[in-house]
Specification:
Number of strands: 0
Helix content: over 70%
Shape: globular
Low-confidence stretches: none
Length: 186
Amino acid sequence: MAAENPVGVQGLVRKVSGWVMAMAVVFIILGVLAIIEPMVAGLAIALLVGWLLIAGGVAHVVSAFSGGGAGRVIWQILLAVVYLVGGFYFITHPLLALGTLTLYLALILLVEAVVEILTYFQTRALGGSGWQLVNGVVTLLLGLMIWSQFPSSAVWAIGTLIGVNLLMTGISRFMIASAARQLSKG
């Protein structure tokens, strides 16, 4: 059995952590831009979700005719209609869509916070994992803030809070990648 090549492992860690750092910088930049222009970010998110729903509706139409019997076709067509109607609603009424997205965002952030905090407890022995706990706590606070301020702050809050979440995610990932690089050196 061949011995592991530590130089190869170190090289792999450096390469992977480099990509994680690059992604972290992108998250940080997007977060700052969303915080500076929260209304633009919120509208962009509503429009993006609308287009994604339309794409999902088209995929369900295609899937409906890929076989599987009449029952499958009916369900796929019904799902396609729901996706397409939702997508067109989001695209044609982006300000109203922000209200819907605001509540959905609160739910997503609350779930993400729980996952981040649970992940921290599984990885707390690793260097830099404290940043994951910070990310989880900040994300939990953001989710609760969206929920408690609805509907008055829906128009500006979604862009701002997504920006802060992107910023914290970028910082935490950057710190974890930095810690991984440090561990691979020693």
